[in-house]
Amino acid sequence: MRSPHKQPLLASVIALLVLVACSEPATEYRQSLFIFGTVVDLKLRGVSDQQAEEAVQVVERAFQRMHQDWHAWKPGELSALNQSFASDKPRPVSPFLLPLITQSQLLFEQSEGLFNPAIGKLIALWGFHGDELPSGAPPSPEAIAAMVKLAPGMDDLEISNGQVRSHNPAVSLDFGGFAKGYALDIAIDLLHQQGVESAIVNAGGDLCVSGDHSGRPWRVGVRHPQGGGILAAVDALDGECLLTSGNYERYRQYDGVRYPHIIDPRDGGPVRHIASATVIDRDGGRADAAATALTVAGSGGWYQIARRMRLKYVMLVDETGTVYMNPAMAKRIDFQDGVPEKIIISDPL
Ligand code: AMP
Ligand code: MG
């Protein structure tokens, strides 16, 4: 039998060990990858450096394959599929690419066609299918109108037995508004498979998190639509992704006018009124597609689209700096550089 006077001693030893364990900083492994034309920062916690290094290599290989196979205009599986749409013939699609198409069909429908990755030809017409930003005069209104009239949509695609065909030859897939979020989700899944529970994968402010940061949520930044800084900070919870669409990211500049890279499929023109749209969601691909769709929907239409897409946390910033949010997002947003002059909080979603 244990003598009673030893128990307090044992208790204090255990307490001390717990204290030491708690105060000991968990090691953090950091690595940056250059992929998708952007820097992806990974932070991994709670595993050895060797385990972390191996896990990051697995993620890097997956990212490289995505970059190759999902590219809208460089040779790869997606561009071969796009070429096949000129005819009405079905073409087999790999299980690596197929889910992007099926999920995008759903998101196209939920966003009332505002997220429309079938408008690749329109995006190319505006000059955004190149590594460099386009220059010179914008395309003619006639060329744009002709493209809009052909009305390519995700509902033109028929998928059966792993084969895809398009009933509209004007369809050309461009997953620029979706693939990053979808890829971030896969990265987190791959890290889980390698035994990494606590991580953040951050592609220039678009990110997904897993686990926490020594018992606290990961603190992340929402990019400022003007300039490179941070507009606000948010605590990202286990399994959440934060995606921002920014019209400041890529644009054509001509004669003092900016023509940004997010295109309204209804009129074929670039969206100017919204500077950025941010979505927090547990599904990275959905968050990415939603952020693009909300940018197109604008300050008048975002609420309806957010409801239809069943989003929980949404924030938009318009070109004058006015911020639009739903109440649940407003509770989580911590503005960093002074509170914006005008904030409009909607009804709950
Ligand atoms: P994001 O930064 O996620 O909003 O993605 C912008 C990219 O998505 C553009 O560079 C285009 O490649 C593509 N895109 C532009 N407009 C749309 C749209 N209405 N629906 C889907 N993808 C789009
Ligand atoms: Mg997007």
Shape category: globular
* Level-2 CATH architecture: Roll
Number of helices: 9
Summed up, the domain count is: 1
User: Helical residue percent?
Assistant: 25-40%
Q: Which structural class should the secondary elements be placed in?
A: alpha+beta
Which radius of gyration do the C-alpha atoms yield? Answer: 23 Å
CATH-defined superfamily: ApbE-like domains
Explain what you see.
The protein contains 9 helices and 17 strands. The chain has 349 residues and is an alpha+beta fold. The chain has one domain: ApbE-like domains (T-fold), CATH 3.10.520. The strands form 4 sheets. A 9-stranded mixed beta sheet has the order 1-2-6-7-10-13-14-15-17. α2 (49-69) packs antiparallel against α7 (179-193) and α4 (98-110) runs parallel beside α8. It is globular and about 55 Å long. The structure holds adenosine monophosphate (AMP) and magnesium ion. Adenosine monophosphate (AMP) binds at residues 114-117, 123, 128, 174, 176-177, 245, 250, 261-263, 265, 288, 291-292, 296. The site of magnesium ion has 7 residues, from α8.
In short:
The protein is α+β, with helices and mostly antiparallel strands. The protein contains 9 helices and 17 strands. Helix 2 runs antiparallel to helix 7, helix 4 packs parallel to helix 8 and helix 7 packs across helix 8.
Question: Main attributes?
Answer:
349 residues, alpha+beta, T-fold, nine-stranded mixed sheet, 9 helices, 17 strands, globular, disordered N terminus, binds adenosine monophosphate, binds magnesium ion
List the helices and strands and how they pair.
Blueprint: H1 6-23, E1 28-35, E2 38-45, H2 49-69, H3 77-84, E3 91-92, H4 98-110, H5 120-125, H6 141-150, E4 157-160, E5 163-166, H7 179-193, E6 198-203, E7 206-210, E8 218-223, E9 230-236, E10 241-246, E11 251-254, E12 257-260, E13 274-281, H8 284-308, E14 313-318, E15 323-325, H9 327-332, E16 334-335, E17 343-345
Parallel strand pairs: 15-17
Antiparallel strand pairs: 1-2, 2-6, 3-5, 4-5, 6-7, 7-10, 8-9, 9-16, 10-13, 11-12, 13-14, 14-15
Bound molecules: adenosine monophosphate (AMP) and magnesium ion.
